[in-house]
Structure formats: structure tokens, C-alpha cells
């Protein structure tokens, strides 16, 4: 087990008789795989691990909000309850909530979270490609 820090560990399987090798398919995702291999090799040799560039900090923050929103729904919270926690909104009456921008933001977070849960998360693992 390789300790990556931040309570993350990686299990690496290797034989004693031969050096460990990585096989990287040379397809359209090859550059992303090479970056991941660079991060792995840095971790194995206890060097500074390069940042993961697949998501911007804003995308990471949105993904966290999406997961928190869908967890809230699954735990029985209302959309307004979730908005109060995620966006620090005040309690609103029904008419105020219907027109609130936070309501639309929560709906958008939940829609996108459901898409991720339905398999869209694989998109997060890929680098954005240039045309």
C-alpha cells in the first residue's frame, strides 16, 4: 500500500523479480493517462505530486455541491433546506422560493448530479480535448 497523503492510499501490485511496468494505450485519452502515470510515479518515489488538471477548482467545487445536494435529497431534505445550507439563504415563503435564484441553482445542481450518478462521472476522468 502506498500512502498518498490526505488519507488516500493506493495499492500497487508488483513482483520482486521484475520491475513494475505501466502499459498506456495510445488512444485519444493517452495524454491524460500519461499525466496520471506521472502523478503515480511521483507518489511512488515520494516526490511532489503534480496537480490533477482534469477539473478546474470551480468544477471541483460544483461537483462537491452537486454531491451534497443529492445526498440531502436522499436524506429527506427539501430543496429549500439544501439551498439554506449550500448558499446560506434565509427561509422563504412559498412565493419567495418560487422566484428565488437559489431554487433554480439547486434544480441545476440536482439535474447535473443525477447525470453524474447515471454514468456521467466517467466524463470527469477524462481531460478536456482540443478539437
| Tally of alpha and pi helices | 5
Question: Helices and strands, in N-to-C order?
Answer: EEHHHHH
Strand order of the largest sheet: 1-2
Unreliable residue stretches: none
Q: What is Rg? A: 20 Å
Give a written overview of the molecule.
With 131 residues, the chain is mainly α. The chain has two domains: 43 residues, no CATH class; 69 residues. It contains five helices and two strands; from the N terminus they run E-E-H-H-H-H-H. It has a two-stranded antiparallel ribbon with strand order 1-2. Helix 2 runs antiparallel to helix 3, helix 2 packs across helix 5 and helix 3 packs across helix 5. The longest helix is centred in the middle third of the chain and has 18 residues. It is elongated and about 70 Å long.
Q: Top keywords for this entry?
A:
elongated, two-stranded antiparallel ribbon, 131 residues
Strand and helix layout:
Elements: E1 2-5, E2 8-10, H1 30-44, H2 57-74, H3 79-86, H4 94-99, H5 101-117
Antiparallel strand pairs: 1-2
Q: In a few lines, what is going on in this structure?
A:
With 131 residues, this protein is mainly α. The protein contains 5 helices and 2 strands. Helix 2 runs antiparallel to helix 3 and helix 3 packs across helix 5.
